[in-house]
């Protein structure tokens, strides 16, 4: 036995077909609507509403004859709207009246059957009109075309489409394929949904209460937990913000078919088309899930309420449920991040999974440095070395000071360090050593990948960096930080204003970041004073003195390297350069010796130092090179041809 809505649709179609044949006297004929003959003109003139129209008595007789069957079909139809069939759930979800439901039934029945389409062609006297037109709807229902007007519930719920072009009277009314599949019992998602959309089934038959909920703060999974709590047991549709009209239509239609709560995840306010789309579908339950609060003027003009999510970190229950273990104090993961690392195999090995989580977001904008060098490789004054160890201790003992001893963590438990000094004095090496001491990876941020000329893009890139770093418990190293953390300027044009916004955003993000950040600069005076107030440890890297230079020279030559007549004391005493230049010179000397096929000698060392002076644009003086001055000034100082 067909569904009750099919029975009513067939009864109404049968009645109107009889009206066409009996009241209008229209015989079935081939090629209907493809040409107009003389007898067609007479019949059309007689049927015009402004003239006599079809014989009213004949129409009345047909209606009376069909009334009993239609009444019985309508009674079954009304009873069927109370069950859990796909059609009944759709009517309840869209909030349709009984008349609107009947119209939907007729249009859907025609859509699903070629035989009914043939009948519609006969009723409309054209083989080209296989779907009901706006002009014919009035024959089925007194309201007729108003049931599918642009603001009618059937159109707002995206359950009926009306052709956008052609004469008004012949515009076809149709049911979209997604609705037909739903009525057939198939739950396939609408193909026009925004990419990345997901659906979750529910076990509650009653549609969710309509309205708008703003959920902000926290991470995505915590906000989704609020939705689950507000609409427990209901289905939901989670999707990114639609980017065009087709995607908005698909979202509304899919949520209506599935009686689902719509969760829109966005980083910013809705644009005008998006706000209008939400406003035009008041039968749905909408959720706008955002990290920050939305501007009031961007909130759609429907009743709304707001929930702020504050606690976003996974608690002991989350860890137990996901990984069957106690929380690891080394990692402060949000619920969403815990879900991701669980999928990445954290149950077997937590640390690699967490590092994989962070690396996937950071590798495009930062260089990962896996620490290999230790304190023995770092040659610094004793006071600077002590300060670096204090920096590592600040990060390592956060749980003791802020957790057990209850010191205030405001503005956050994070540690910010400033390494200032000339290039090559060991700032990057020091950051690597500290990271190695803590057992963390070091990410050197590539500023060229972060700073953008487009408004707002720099902030997005930085949010991506800090968000990923927070999950991985790693060390962020901003080299040449004065380019990014520089002093705010007087506002003289739009560029200055947006540059100051970037600086303010960076300061805010540093204050809320719970990890370790190292800012490196060649010129400390270029750093904005607001950042200096946030600095926990500041280390001033200077050029090494002679004892330190001697230690650096000594460490630059491995024990396996062949050395002959190499006066390291002379090199350390004469060349007042940074450790980076010393390392480059030692490496250059090794390659010169390898090409000569001899051990590394003073000749190779001073020639390599000459190359470093050339790169720096620095003059070579006899006071520095002494007895090797003639050697470095001869044209034939390069390695001999072989």
TrEMBL record:
Q: Which domain of life is it from?
A: Bacteria
Recorded hits in Pfam families, A to Z, give: AAA, WHD
The record's section on InterPro entries has: 26S_Proteasome_ATPase (IPR050221), AAA+_ATPase (IPR003593), ATPase_AAA_core (IPR003959), P-loop_NTPase (IPR027417), WHD (IPR054472)
Is ATP-binding tagged as a keyword?
A: yes
Q: Which CDD domains match?
A: RecA-like_protease
User: What would you give as a GO molecular function for this chain, any one?
Assistant: ATP binding
Q: Which UniProt keywords apply?
A: ATP-binding, Nucleotide-binding
Keyword Repeat assigned: no
Taking every annotated instance into account, which residue ranges of this chain make up the domain AAA+ ATPase? 413-545
For this chain, the family text in UniProt reads: Belongs to the AAA ATPase family.
- Official protein name in the record: ATPase AAA
What organism is recorded for this protein? Answer: Virgisporangium aliadipatigenens
